[in-house]
Specification:
mainly alpha; about 425 residues; chloride channel activity; transmembrane; two-stranded antiparallel ribbon; membrane
């Protein structure tokens, strides 16, 4: 049903991983030896991404301190953003190839995929394997996708935009209240709409995730890879719009850099705090509570059994099941978006991301070792479709930062009469960055 943890090997892994808080590289090879390549690659990418954020944090801190009140002096930092968001993903490809080459999975042959356990249909003969298995017409799946799933996703996107406009109404109300009274408590009130909106975003993301999983399962995909690709596409599209639509609206419609900085800071910090509580603190507390109950139950047994093994089986049976790296990569994907898209306006974004990731490494390690069942190991040659997702975000980041540079007063001052020259230069920079 599930593999038990090897307590001796797990203790050695914990001692070299997270029990002693020191600034050192993670034992990725040991993680791979215990949990497999897929999970080891996630922790390798988390470590690499955290290290890659440090130059952004180092440059952003003085930039934030000395240009705090001048919201329009972001051209230099945006230019650095352009290069950073492109280069780090190319360097990661090389590092990932080095790891998987060392593990022997770099040129891993793709095995013939068996049908998903949830796949259903009329029993028939597979023309490739000659075996009897469920068959389901492709046109029926396409009808479900385009007539049900696609309209539902569009409806959710519309609802997300509607909630965003309510948030802007709340911002206008808080601003007018502060301007009319000018007191200290109303200045604090200015942050309340952003905090409420950030919490609503997290709730909507989680509710949509359940709906997306149900719809993707209902579409009845034959292979696990097809199921994962459709699920990731649904979730990424909604999460991107839900998390970043308000920032794009503020930046390019309202053109209010002060509000953009405030919204980005609130959304980033609030989402990181909520994720730490929901993913690590709460599960760990529940697990500790259950551990005490199991101890009492074992002590009450009078039977002559191996109490230690019985206790381990009962305890791990009630542990949560690790559902894969989907949520972990999604969290990093959104964090990469917050940092790469608009951190030129709020340079402390990278510093907060670094601090979050230092705790994320330890909390995820604790979660894998002490909160969740030991998962079956899976070989991997790379991080899969998430590489494409991060590269797509990098392209959007290049376009966004080029547009912000083109909007800046410093660049506009160079072209006081002709806006066409400015537009052509911005487009040329975008094209050259994307080709690189």
């Amino acid at each position: 049903m599930f593999p038990l943890h090897d307590n001796e090997a797990l203790k050695k892994l914990e001692d070299s991983w997270y029990t002693r808080f020191t600034l050192k590289y993670q034992p990725v090879d040991r993680i791979r030896g215990y949990f497999g390549e897929t999970i080891a690659l996630y922790f390798g990418f988390l470590e690499y991404f955290t290290v890659a954020l440090i130059p952004m944090a180092v440059i952003g801190l003085p930039y934030y301190l000395f240009v705090w009140e001048d919201y329009d002096k972001y051209v230099i930092f945006a230019s650095f953003n352009l290069i950073w968001s492109t280069v780090i993903l190319e360097v990661w490809k090389r590092g990932c190839a080095n790891m998987t080459y060392r593990w022997g999975t770099l040129v891993m042959k793709r095995q013939f995929e068996e049908p998903r356990p949830g796949f259903h249909g009329v029993l028939g003969i597979n023309p490739v394997t000659g075996r009897e298995e469920p068959l389901y017409p492709s046109y029926k799946r396409q009808l479900r996708i385009y007539l049900v799933s696609l309209p539902f996703v569009c409806l959710c996107l519309y609802f997300s935009l509607y909630v965003m406009m309510i948030y802007f109404d709340m911002e206008s109300w808080a601003m007018s209240l502060h301007e009319s009274s000018g007191s200290e408590w109303t200045s604090v009130l200015l942050y309340v709409p952003s905090i409420i909106y950030a919490i609503v975003i997290e709730i909507m993301n989680r509710l949509y995730r359940y709906a997306a999983e149900f719809l993707t399962s209902w579409e009845n995909h034959r292979l696990e890879s097809a199921y994962q690709n459709h699920l990731i596409l649904k979730v990424l599209v909604f999460n991107f719009l839900n998390c970043f639509a308000s920032l794009f609206y503020i930046a390019f419609v309202l053109r209010d850099m002060k509000l953009l900085r405030q919204s980005l800071a609130t959304l980033l910090i609030t989402s990181q705090i909520l994720n730490q509580i929901m993913e690590s603190v709460l599960p760990y507390w529940l697990q500790k509570k259950h551990h005490v109950q199991v101890k009492r139950k074992v002590q009450a047994l009078k039977a002559d059994i191996d109490a230690t093994l019985y206790e381990q089986v009962v305890l791990e049976k009630e542990m949560g099941t690790y559902l894969g790296t989907f949520d972990d990569y999604l969290e990093l994907f959104l964090q990469f978006g917050y940092v790469s898209l608009f951190s030129c306006v709020y340079p402390l974004a990278a510093a907060f991301a670094v601090l979050n990731n230092f705790t994320e490494v330890n909390s995820d390690a604790l979660k894998m070792c002490r909160v969740l069942k030991r998962p079956f190991s899976e070989p991997s040659a790379n991080i899969g479709v998430w590489q494409l997702a991060f590269e797509t975000m990098s392209v959007i980041s290049v376009v966004t930062n080029c547009a912000l540079i083109g909007m800046s007063p410093q660049v506009n001052a160079l072209f006081p009469e002709s806006k066409l020259d400015l537009i052509l230069i911005v487009v040329a920079v975008e094209v050259s960055e994307n080709l690189n």
